[in-house]
Specification:
alpha+beta, globular, 1 helix
Length: 181
């Protein structure tokens, strides 16, 4: 009887060691697998690129791809204190550049020369808060903007685009392809 008890104990001991070994192996392999999948790392300054998908009729749909390493893109509705405060320019628009976080600078081609045109209503937007939760805050995505083209009707226009994060890091300045009207 004692021999059977010892054999049974040894069996359970070996079986539990085998299960423990398999469990440790599974945990090790899953840890090794997830550590091989590095999270994306981007610079803390936003970077923008033109998307391949654009629609250039009225309204023009401009689509940009972006990355931001620390994920501080966008505002809460309550983000209205300096440096994000509204400073009225007398026309109901803000003259404070940092009130907006996506700015499109409007250009017209006149006599073969591109000129930046100050518009009464700026092509400037407040992107909503999109910072991800969790430890890795890096962002990549697309922003779509429908731009109503109004005013004078030049043959060719384009925009320069800039994205600004909450730390006031300004992205590269991106130029759209020419929009023929």
């Amino acid at each position: 009887m004692k021999k059977a008890f010892l054999q049974l104990t040894a069996y359970f001991y070996l079986r539990s060691m085998k299960l423990l070994s398999i469990g440790v192996l599974v945990i090790f392999l899953s840890g090794a697998f997830t550590s091989c999948q590095k999270s994306k790392e981007y610079p803390i300054e936003p970077e923008i690129l033109m998307s391949n998908r654009q629609e250039y009729h009225n309204p023009a749909r401009i689509i940009i791809s972006f990355t931001d390493g620390d994920g501080d893109i966008g505002f809460h509705e309550s983000d209205t204190l300096p440096p994000f405060n509204f400073v009225d320019d007398g026309n109901g628009n803000s003259e404070n550049k940092f009130y907006y976080n996506l700015i499109l600078y409007y250009f017209e081609k006149n006599d073969g020369v591109w000129e930046e045109i100050e518009t009464l209503v700026p092509y400037a937007y407040r992107i909503p808060y999109i910072t991800p939760t969790g430890q890795n805050k890096a962002l990549n995505g697309e922003i779509e903007v429908d731009v109503v083209l109004s005013g004078a009707r030049p043959d060719s226009i384009r925009f320069d685009i800039e994205l600004i994060d909450r730390a006031l890091h300004e992205s590269n300045r991106l130029t759209t392809p020419v929009i023929y009207r």
